[in-house]
C-alpha cells in the first residue's frame, strides 16, 4: 500500500477502505508519511468530502493513534458532554456536578481557550490550586471514588489529531466537515466515553455560523458516534449572543457556582437543565427528559450538586472555600457600568464582538501560551428582547488596565443593536 495511491483515490472521488485510512493515519503519526502528503490528503478531503463510513474509520484511526482509555472496569457507564465552544459558555462547570449528584459518573477532558471563546480549564484554574494535569491512573481512580473528573488532555490521546490539526491550520483545510467531526470525536472516543452529549453552537459567536452548517456537523458526529458503538446525541443551541451574563474566567466560575445555588440568569439556568436532562437520559439514569430535568432540579434544590462541585475542586487540589464564598475570587481593579445610549428593545448583542473584546482585556488568548488574567471580563445585563431605557446599565466591564477598559467599552457598545419595535428573545435550542 502506498500513500500516493490513497491520495489519488480520494482525489478521484472514490471511497477509501478502512485499511487504507488506517495505513495512512498510522504512517502519518509515526512520521513515515510526510507532511506534504498529509496536506494533499486533507485538500482532497476538503474538496471531495467523505462518506459517514469513511469519516467513522478516520475517527477511529485517529483515536487509536495513541492511548485509548477503557473505563468499563471503573464505572458502569461513562458519559461525556462536549460543547463546540462559545462566549460565556461555562455549562460544563454547572452541568457535570448536577449529573454526578444524580448518581451518573462523569469523566471529562477539556481544552484551553484559543481565539474568542474561553476554555473550561482556564475558568477552573481561577480557583487556586486546581490541578488540570491528572495522569491516567489519577483520572480513573477519581472517577471511581468521587464520580466526577474535570481535567485537561494531558494524556497521549489521539496524537494524529494534534498533528493533523496543526497541518490543517497552515494549509487552508480547517473548514472541512469530515475533518472537524473526526477531530472532535476521536478525542471523545479515546477518552473512554461510552455515551456522548454534543452541544453544537450556531450563530455569530460560533464556529458554525448558520443553522444548516451546525446541523450537518451534528448529524455527522452523531453518525460517527453510532458507527463507533457510542451512544450519541447532539443539541443545536444558540450562540448569537453570550450565554448567561458572565464573560471572563473568574466571573464565569462565580456564575456557574451561583447556578448550583439556584441563582443564575434565566437563559443559562434553562440551558443547563436541558443539557443535564439529555445527559441523564443517555446515561440511563432518567427514562425521559422530563424526569431528567426534575432530577437535575432536585440536586440544585437539595444542595447535592453544589456539594459535588466542592468534592471535585477538593479532589483536584483546589481551595474549596471558593465554592462556599465567591467573594474570595480575584476581582479586577476597575469596574465600570456602561449605560444605554438610547431607549428601545435590544435586537442584537453580537457574541463574537463581546468574545474578542474579552480577549483584548486579557481574559482569553490571541495565541497559544499567552497568559490569562482571570479577573477581567464582562457582565452582560441586557440581552436580545429586553426593553431598555436610556441611561440604564447595559453591561459592566471588569478590567485591570484603563486603556484596555476604554477599548472594550467602545467594542462592546458596538455589539449592541436597538429597535423601536418589540423584539422576541432568541431561542436557547433549535433542535
Task: Explain how this protein is built.
This protein has helices spanning 3-11, 18-29, 35-48, 52-63, 91-101, 120-124, 136-146, 159-171, 177-190, 211-227, 249-259, 266-282, 289-301, 304-315, 321-324, 351-361, 402-415; strands spanning 79-83, 106-110, 148-152, 195-202, 231-238, 246-247, 334-339, 344-349, 377-380, 387-388, 393-399, 416-419. It has 431 residues and is of the alpha/beta class. It has 3 domains: 3-49, Transferase, Pyrimidine Nucleoside Phosphorylase, Chain A, domain 3 (Up-down Bundle), CATH 1.20.970.10; 79-324, Pyrimidine Nucleoside Phosphorylase, Chain A, domain 2 (3-Layer(aba) Sandwich); 330-419, Pyrimidine nucleoside phosphorylase-like, C-terminal domain (Aldehyde Oxidoreductase, domain 3, Alpha-Beta Complex).
Characteristic key phrases:
Transferase, Pyrimidine Nucleoside Phosphorylase, Chain A, domain 3, Pyrimidine Nucleoside Phosphorylase, Chain A, domain 2, Aldehyde Oxidoreductase, domain 3, 17 helices
Short description:
It contains 17 helices and twelve strands. The chain is α/β, with parallel strands linked by helices.
Topology diagram in text:
Elements: H1 3-11, H2 18-29, H3 35-48, H4 52-63, E1 79-83, H5 91-101, E2 106-110, H6 120-124, H7 136-146, E3 148-152, H8 159-171, H9 177-190, E4 195-202, H10 211-227, E5 231-238, E6 246-247, H11 249-259, H12 266-282, H13 289-301, H14 304-315, H15 321-324, E7 334-339, E8 344-349, H16 351-361, E9 377-380, E10 387-388, E11 393-399, H17 402-415, E12 416-419
Parallel strand pairs: 1-4, 2-3, 4-5
Antiparallel strand pairs: 6-9, 7-11, 8-10, 8-12, 9-11
Helix pairs in contact: 1-3, 2-4, 3-8, 4-9, 4-10, 5-12, 5-14, 9-10, 12-13, 16-17
Amino acid at each position: 500500500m502506498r500513500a500516493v495511491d490513497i491520495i489519488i483515490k480520494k482525489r478521484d472521488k472514490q471511497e477509501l477502505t478502512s485499511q487504507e485510512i488506517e495505513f495512512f493515519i498510522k504512517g502519518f503519526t509515526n512520521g513515515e508519511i510526510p507532511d506534504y502528503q498529509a496536506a494533499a490528503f486533507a485538500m482532497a478531503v476538503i474538496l471531495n468530502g467523505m462518506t459517514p463510513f469513511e469519516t467513522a474509520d478516520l475517527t477511529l484511526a485517529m483515536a487509536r493513534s495513541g492511548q485509548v482509555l477503557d473505563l468499563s472496569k471503573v464505572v458502569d457507564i461513562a458519559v461525556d458532554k462536549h460543547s463546540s465552544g462559545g462566549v460565556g459558555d461555562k455549562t460544563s462547570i454547572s452541568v457535570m456536578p448536577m449529573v454526578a449528584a444524580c448518581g451518573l459518573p462523569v469523566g471529562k477532558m477539556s481544552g484551553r481557550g484559543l481565539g474568542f471563546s474561553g476554555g473550561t480549564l482556564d475558568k477552573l484554574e481561577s480557583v487556586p490550586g486546581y490541578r488540570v494535569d491528572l495522569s491516567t491512573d489519577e483520572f480513573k481512580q477519581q472517577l471511581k471514588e468521587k464520580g466526577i473528573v474535570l481535567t485537561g488532555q494531558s494524556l497521549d490521546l489521539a496524537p494524529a489529531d494534534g498533528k493533523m490539526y496543526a497541518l490543517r491550520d497552515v494549509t487552508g483545510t480547517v473548514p472541512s466537515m469530515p475533518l472537524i467531526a473526526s477531530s472532535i470525536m476521536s478525542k471523545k472516543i479515546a477518552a473512554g466515553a461510552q455515551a456522548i452529549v454534543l452541544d453544537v453552537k450556531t450563530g455569530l459567536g460560533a464556529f458554525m455560523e448558520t443553522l444548516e452548517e451546525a446541523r450537518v456537523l451534528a448529524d455527522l458526529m452523531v453518525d460517527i458516534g453510532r458507527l463507533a458503538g457510542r451512544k450519541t446525541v447532539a443539541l443545536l443551541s444558540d450562540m448569537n449572543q453570550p450565554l448567561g451574563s458572565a464573560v471572563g474566567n473568574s466571573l464565569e466560575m462565580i456564575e456557574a457556582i451561583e447556578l448550583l445555588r439556584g441563582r443564575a440568569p434565566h437563559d443559562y439556568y434553562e440551558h443547563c437543565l436541558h443539557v443535564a436532562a439529555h445527559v441523564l437520559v443517555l446515561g440511563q439514569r432518567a427514562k425521559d427528559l422530563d424526569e431528567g430535568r426534575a432530577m437535575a432540579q432536585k440536586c440544585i434544590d437539595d444542595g447535592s450538586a453544589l456539594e459535588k462541585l466542592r468534592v471535585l475542586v477538593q479532589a483536584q487540589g483546589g481551595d474549596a472555600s471558593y465554592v462556599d464564598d465567591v467573594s474570595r475570587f480575584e476581582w479586577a481593579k476597575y469596574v465600570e457600568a456602561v449605560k444605554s445610549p438610547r431607549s428601545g428593545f435590544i435586537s442584537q448583542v453580537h457574541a463574537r464582538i463581546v468574545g474578542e473584546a474579552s480577549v483584548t482585556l486579557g481574559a482569553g488568548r490571541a495565541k497559544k501560551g499567552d497568559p490569562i488574567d482571570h479577573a477581567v471580563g464582562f457582565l452582560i445585563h441586557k440581552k436580545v428582547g429586553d426593553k431598555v431605557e436610556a441611561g440604564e446599565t447595559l453591561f459592566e466591564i471588569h478590567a485591570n488596565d484603563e486603556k484596555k477598559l476604554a477599548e472594550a467599552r467602545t467594542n462592546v457598545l458596538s455589539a449592541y443593536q436597538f429597535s423601536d419595535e418589540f423584539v422576541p428573545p432568541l431561542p436557547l435550542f433549535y433542535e
